[in-house]
């Protein structure tokens, strides 16, 4: 009996320290400017040898047809001419359609893992370029860490690790009628009055590069102005978090998750325990994590 090769990748969630919308592109997408950061909440992606591409997920609502990992495998096959298959099994911990890049990071992990399984030897730069054909957040999530992300998401500039000790993330229970169309729905509410020049994003990126801290007053998410309209009851959840003592609460990506940086580890732990054990809310106390540095094919 031959040993089946199996590769396990951690697919890390992300938060947007800033998220600005610069304008609409000719292709229908929007140009963005964002400082993104991966955190140590992760899905587990296990990739094993198989004749065909088979994607499974422990969340039944995420079918293979809508799973971005399926698209990632197909794009990689098309770009490299590989005819091999793979079994891709995903164990979810990141909330679905919550603004933390769950589907995108699974796709990025699939690309890294398939690169190893199929012995393609692609560099992280090459994988990042491929990832733009899979989804807007996927290029950043190939490496993760701290990056300035521009364009539709394909222009990723890694920067020094942001000096943030902990994030407290709260994912409110908001009933979304169509999980897969959430981001498109959010963008459909964008109008020209929301466009900025990206100054806040570049200011924070420059501060991080220079070794400075990340005070919450530098954080910004343009979608925050739409959060209550898109997710009824969102403001109540934010106000609840602030009632604990959180000073600045920001939307994660296109929402509805929100995050704050606790003023101390002790307070962060106390708030997290209160939210999860007493109030039975879905909350995560997480650390920022550094970028993947080694070549994915090694």
Automatic annotation (TrEMBL):
Molecular function, one GO term = ATP binding
Q: What class of enzyme is it?
A: transferase
Q: Which residues form a coiled coil?
A: none
Q: Could you tell me which species this protein originates from?
A: Candidatus Lucifugimonas marina
Q: What is its EC number?
A: 2.7.1.148
Q: What is this protein called?
A: 4-diphosphocytidyl-2-C-methyl-D-erythritol kinase
Q: Which HAMAP family does the record associate with it? A: IspE
> Per its UniProt record, what NCBIfam families does this chain match?
ispE
């Amino acid at each position: 009996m031959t040993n089946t090769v199996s590769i396990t990748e951690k697919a890390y969630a992300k938060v947007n320290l800033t998220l600005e919308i610069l304008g609409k592109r000719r292709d229908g997408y929007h140009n963005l400017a964002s400082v993104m950061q991966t955190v140590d909440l992760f899905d587990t992606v296990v990739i094993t040898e198989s004749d065909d591409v088979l994607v499974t997920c422990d969340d039944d609502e995420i079918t293979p047809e809508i799973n971005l990992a399926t698209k990632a495998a197909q794009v990689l096959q098309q770009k490299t001419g590989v005819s091999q298959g793979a079994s891709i099994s995903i164990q979810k911990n990141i909330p679905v359609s919550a603004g933390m890049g769950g589907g995108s990071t699974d796709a990025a992990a699939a690309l890294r893992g398939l690169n190893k399984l199929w012995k393609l030897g692609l560099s992280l730069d090459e994988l990042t370029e491929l990832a733009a054909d899979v989804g807007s957040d996927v290029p950043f999530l190939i490496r993760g860490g701290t990056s300035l992300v521009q364009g539709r998401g394909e222009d990723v500039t890694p920067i020094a690790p942001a000096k943030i000790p902990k994030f407290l993330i709260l994912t409110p229970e908001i009933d979304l009628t169509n999980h897969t169309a959430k981001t498109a729905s959010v963008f459909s509410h964008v109008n020209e009055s929301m466009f900025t020049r990206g100054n806040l994003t570049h200011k924070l990126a420059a501060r991080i590069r220079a070794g400075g801290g990340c005070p919450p007053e530098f954080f910004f998410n343009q979608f925050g102005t739409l959060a209550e309209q898109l997710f009824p009851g969102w403001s109540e959840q934010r106000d609840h978090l602030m009632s604990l003592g959180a000073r600045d609460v920001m939307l994660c990506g296109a929402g509805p998750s929100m995050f704050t940086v606790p003023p101390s580890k002790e307070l962060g732990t106390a708030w997290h325990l209160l939210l999860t054990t007493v109030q039975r809310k879905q909350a995560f106390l997480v650390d920022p994590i550094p970028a993947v540095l080694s070549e994915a094919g090694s």
